[in-house]
Structure formats: C-alpha cells, structure tokens
Amino acid sequence: MLKHIALTSMILSLSLGSPLKAAETDQFSKLEQPVEDSAELLNSKVNAYIEKSLLVLNQKNHSCEEKDLYKELRKYFNNHLKGILMKEILRDSRFDKRPISLDESIFKGWTPWDGIGMGLPFLKSTDLVLTGVMRVGDQTIGTDKLEHFWGQGFYYFTKNYLDKKGTIRALKVGIAKEKIYLGGNKIGNGVFSYGDLGANFNGMRFWNHMLQKRADVLGADHDIGPYVVCENNNWKQVKAVDFRYYIDDSMDESINCSKFPSKSTVRKVQLAIKARHLSCPVDQKRLDTMISKYGELSHWIINEEGIGELRYTKEFKK
Question: What is the pTM of this model?
C-alpha cells in the first residue's frame, strides 16, 4: 500500500504538480464551433496590469531598477499557478474559449504508454490535461500557449539576455525542458509541442520589447518597444502592447505540428486527424511563411517534417 501511494504521488508530481507542467491543446477538433476574438480584452488587461505595476514601483521609489520591474510584472504575467492574468483568462467567461474534452479530442484512447498525463484514467480531466482554444485577432491558439509565452518566454529572455548565454543556448535548454518534463515524453503527456517552442520564443521577444535595450532577435526592423521607459527615476509606459503582433502560426499546432515519443502514438494521432478529414500541417503555405519569418532560427522552433516520432538525442543537431 505504501509503495502504491508513493508511486501515485510521484506520478502526480511529475504529471500535474510541477509548476512547469504544461497542459496540451487540440486544434483539429470541433472546428465548426466559432470562437469570439479576445484580442481587445487581452490587450486591455495587459496594458492595465503594466500600468498598475509601474504605479506600485514608483510609489516604492525603486529608482527604475530593472530586476524590480520584472519581478512586479511577473505577478501578472506568468503561468496559471503564479500569474494573475493567466488565472483570469482561464476563469473569466469573457475570454471566449472552445472547450474540448479528452474524449472529443485527437487524444481519445490515450494510454499510459502514450503519455501518463493523459493516459491514466484518474487523470483524464479537461481541466488537467487539455486547455481550451481561444482567438487573438485572426489567430487561434490553445490557452496553454500564453502560459508558455509569459512563463518560459521569460526564462528564454533571462537565459539569452540577462545571463548573456545567447539565443541558441536559450532555445536548446528550452527544447530539453520540453523533452524531459514539459510534456514531450511518456512520463508527461506524450506530446512534444513545437507550438510551445514558438510561444516560448515570442515570449522572449515580448520581454525584450518591454525596455527594448537590445534589437529584436529577428532584426531591428521588428523592434516595437520600448513599452516602458525611465523618466526622472520613475517608470512610465510610453506605448501600448498589442498581442496580435506576437501571436502567429508558430503557436498553432495544426500548422506547427507536434511530435510524439513512439511510432504507435504517431499512428494513433495521424488516424485521429485523418478521421477529421485533415492533415498536419493543415496549410503548407502557412507553415512555409513561418519558416521564412524565423529564418535560420526556424530550425529550433518550426517542425518542417510534420507529425512524427521524436528523436531524443539528435532531433535538433545542426
């Protein structure tokens, strides 16, 4: 009995309890169900929380310490366990979402051999393993992508810029995390999401744009910050954030296809998508646009091969 309890505790910890654990999304199912655009509401919330953060910091007279700015902002922009805005997005019905249960999804019939997080019977709950799909402008994304955007995006930003490890190093570590405990193996949900990598990358860009101390990683012509500047030892927002700039097809798992830990799981997903009269990518031209947009960096973000088996040791060698 004690061994069973210990094993169950370990599984729950690995599959659910970690603050780094990410849920999955399904952008192939229930496409006939429309989703209202949440861009204006999202932008309004983001800019209001930036303003609120700056007010708190200025009242404390921090004299524009960069680390204090990020610490205050991350109270609002983080994952679902820590970020106030992410909790609101998940709970507030004004953020329209297309809910998809596991039994309605392409992951129906998932077993522990496909991925423990979606395969164990007592874990098969929409709230735990599948997120809803929301619309931001012309783009639909799983709400989990915003968690990656703010959470892992800040990790990329820190690794690349603050720790000065460089972009490729940040991307490689992010890939390793996705493979090990952010869903990409059987101990997790069994889904290695390139869409997550796209969200992480663009989150890094968002955090860099906050003060825009450095050119955008895609080139100076992509500089749209700073959103915040320091004037007379006080923070001031000088430009509004528009999230439609950041959300693109790199985060759409029907375009930037996922990979899976075994051939049998790959076949299961392919059959489920085919049963919906779709393929992945659903639109090759949109995928080609992403490859062009990210250039040499697309190797670390975009899946050009389509759905397939993940190679754990040489997948991203270059």
Answer: 0.90
